Amino acid sequence: MRKIREKHVNWQIRAFTLVECLLVLTVISFLTLIFSSVLTKTVHLVREELFVLQFENLYKNTQEDAALLSTREDFGVSHSFLTYENHRLKIPDDVIISDFSIQFDEQGENSSLKKIKILLPDEQKIVSYQLEMGSGKFKKTVS
User: Fold this and answer.
1) Which domains does the chain have, with CATH numbers?
2) Stated pTM of the model
């Protein structure tokens, strides 16, 4: 009779640990899903901000190269690629920017008053650049 009770008690303990394991696994899976979605959103936000910083940096570098090398340089966006100094950079899928083209002359100046808008959907903001004619500088506004 004692052996039967021991087997019965052992079986109940195993079943209880199995339920515990399933509960812990469920909680961990749930937390992992929540944190992975937050992490994914954070990665998209960082990717958008990095593109804006990279855009500004490439604009300035292209302008400086035109002035230093005394050559005409093109800077623009077409078909989801940012083109500069005979290079192409893929624009992230999250970022929306309309096609444009700017040409810097031998002094690093442009002859455009274009307004460039970059839409960042994850951050729900628009970054606008108003180009200044001649100087090649721009005025940045974020809304």
Assistant:
1) 18-142 (3.55.40)
2) 0.76
